[in-house]
């Protein structure tokens, strides 16, 4: 989904900027040709000889410079003035850089045409941003796409944070209210929606996206209890220190509000730049796979329908990044009523951990056994990767009933996008029980890099061909 401040919107912005630079080049080239045809007999015309591949080089260089000045960082470009200022800075750097490139390779590009190109590209990049901000402003005014904030603690700190988080026209933040155990505040302050014990009900009723904990240090146990209650809810948690010990993987200082620092204790395990690179890699690879695998998937769908009259796809709710639920889609490999028979095949190990997969599962069809052995049933998940709900590589998306049995430390696996394949799949797959997977996920999270993703994908091919651990 294309949400503001998301990595998908960042890629969308990069694409539009690249198109703006490309379009500006076309406009200047068209003007140059038109000028030569109509006025060459009256005035000397401006020269412009730009090889075709520079129509790709110029947009790439400009986009890289935009990245360098953090033009695509939504957290620091909330106001239009901030974004426009960075756009102008990038324009100045791009003008110098591209002029140097033109001089270095001895291209014919008249100064007047070059200035026209730089200004045109900047205007086009500014125009689409204005329209997007108008769109978002209308969405926020109509209560669409708002991030709803609930503050735990209605004391001085909580109110100071609330005052400075009140959403400006360009922001999508909305303060819903407070929770506090003070009986006087509950009785007299209309903004206090309930006691801290009402947390889960208030979060669900108001569809809270962000929880700000503004409790004193002495209430650390209460803060711990709050975080534990929200483990399975896709809610960001910002905490006024000292509560850094609660972080799942790392704390991210998101800013300082009126001298009050806020820590995001559900900060992603990878940086914004790493996330962007990972998303670009996912988009490129998933697009290629979809193009080449679509005929194979159509053929498999026909075979599934011929063997069994039930649905072609198996859809199941899974837990994704930040415990956000999503629907996983795979080729159906079991009989139609497989879910109702799950209890009959589940077993528990000596520690009481549920093992929900086993060899020779009676629910698996003949074709399904073949698809599972070579992981062909996983192919439709590539569409979830393309849409950004999953990644090619990451922790395996788990079923909600299993996540409910997790210990606190196991939730670390949700601080990164969940993947089609991962470190666990190439080292153990189904041969290694669910409760041992998290150790592999922790290794992947702590050692994440694009090269590790590529290594895992390459090893996945050999694992799949051998059919090791798949059933």
What does this structure look like?
By secondary structure, the protein is an alpha/beta fold. It folds into 3 domains: 7-141, no CATH class; 147-264, NAD(P)-binding Rossmann-like Domain (Rossmann fold); 272-466, no CATH class. The protein has helices at residues 7-39, 54-68, 80-104, 111-141, 156-165, 183-188, 199-205, 220-229, 272-307, 342-345, 366-373, 381-387, 400-403, 423-427, 437-446, 450-466; strands at 48-49, 108-109, 147-152, 173-179, 192-194, 210-213, 236-239, 252-257, 260-264, 313-319, 325-331, 347-348, 354-355, 391-393, 419-421. The strands form 5 sheets. A 7-stranded mixed sheet has the order 5-4-3-6-7-9-8. Strands 1-2 form a two-stranded antiparallel ribbon. α1 (7-39) crosses α9 (272-307). The radius of gyration is 27 Å and the shape is flat. Residues 36-45 and 243-249 have low confidence and may be disordered.
What characteristics describe this protein?
471 residues; Rossmann fold; 7-stranded mixed sheet; two-stranded antiparallel sheet; 16 helices
Structural class of the helices, strands and pairings? alpha/beta
> For the CA atoms, what is the radius of gyration?
27 Å
From the N-terminal CA to the C-terminal CA, the straight-line distance is: 33 Å
Number of beta-strand segments = 15
In terms of per-residue confidence, which ranges show pLDDT below 50 for 5 or more consecutive residues?
36-45, 243-249
Please summarize what this structure is:
This protein has 471 residues and is an alpha/beta fold. The chain has helices at 7-39, 54-68, 80-104, 111-141, 156-165, 183-188, 199-205, 220-229, 272-307, 342-345, 366-373, 381-387, 400-403, 423-427, 437-446, 450-466; strands at 48-49, 108-109, 147-152, 173-179, 192-194, 210-213, 236-239, 252-257, 260-264, 313-319, 325-331, 347-348, 354-355, 391-393, 419-421.
């Amino acid at each position: 989904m294309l949400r503001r401040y998301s990595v998908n919107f960042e890629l969308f912005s990069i694409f539009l900027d690249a198109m703006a630079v490309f379009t500006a080049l076309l406009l200047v080239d068209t003007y140059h040709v038109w000028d030569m045809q109509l006025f060459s007999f009256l005035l000397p015309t401006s020269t412009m000889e730009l090889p075709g591949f520079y129509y790709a080089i110029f947009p790439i260089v400009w986009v890289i410079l935009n990245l360098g000045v953090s033009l695509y960082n939504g957290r620091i470009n909330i106001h239009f003035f901030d974004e426009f200022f960075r756009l102008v800075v990038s324009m100045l750097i791009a003008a110098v850089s591209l002029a140097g490139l033109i001089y270095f390779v001895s291209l014919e590009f008249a100064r007047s045409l070059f200035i026209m190109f730089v200004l045109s590209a900047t205007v086009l990049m500014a125009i689409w941003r204005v329209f997007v901000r108008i769109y978002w402003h209308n969405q926020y005014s109509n209560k669409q796409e708002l991030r709803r904030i609930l503050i735990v603690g209605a004391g001085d700190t909580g109110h100071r944070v609330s005052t400075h988080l009140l959403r400006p026209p360009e922001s999508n933040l909305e303060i819903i209210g407070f929770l506090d155990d003070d009986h006087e505040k509950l009785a007299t302050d209309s903004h206090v929606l309930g006691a801290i014990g009402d947390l889960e009900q208030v979060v669900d009723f108001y569809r809270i996206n962000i929880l700000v904990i503004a409790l004193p240090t002495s209430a650390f146990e209460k803060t711990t209890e709050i975080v534990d209650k929200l483990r399975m809810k896709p809610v960001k948690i910002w905490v006024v220190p000292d509560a850094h010990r609660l972080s799942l993987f790392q704390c991210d200082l998101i800013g300082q509000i009126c001298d009050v620092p806020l820590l995001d204790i559900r900060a992603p395990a990878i940086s914004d730049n790493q996330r962007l690179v990972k998303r670009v890699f996912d988009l490129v690879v998933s697009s290629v796979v979809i193009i080449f695998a679509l005929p194979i998937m159509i053929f498999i769908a026909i075979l599934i329908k011929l063997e069994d009259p039930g649905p072609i796809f198996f859809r199941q709710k899974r837990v994704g990044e930040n415990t956000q639920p999503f629907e996983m889609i795979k080729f159906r490999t079991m009989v139609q009523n497989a879910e109702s028979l799950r209890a009959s095949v589940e077993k528990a190990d000596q520690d009481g951990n549920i093992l929900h997969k086993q060899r020779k599962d009676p629910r698996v069809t003949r074709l399904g056994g073949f698809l599972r052995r070579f992981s062909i049933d996983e192919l439709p998940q590539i569409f979830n990767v393309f849409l950004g709900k999953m990644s090619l590589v990451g922790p395996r998306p788990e079923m909600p009933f299993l996540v409910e049995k997790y210990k606190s430390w196991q939730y670390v696996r949700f601080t990164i996008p969940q993947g089609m394949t991962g470190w666990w799949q190439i080292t153990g797959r189904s041969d290694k029980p669910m409760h041992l997977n998290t150790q592999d996920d922790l290794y992947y999270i702590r050692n994440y890099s694009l090269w590790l993703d590529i290594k895992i994908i390459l090893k996945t091919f050999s694992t799949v061909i051998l059919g090791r651990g798949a059933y």
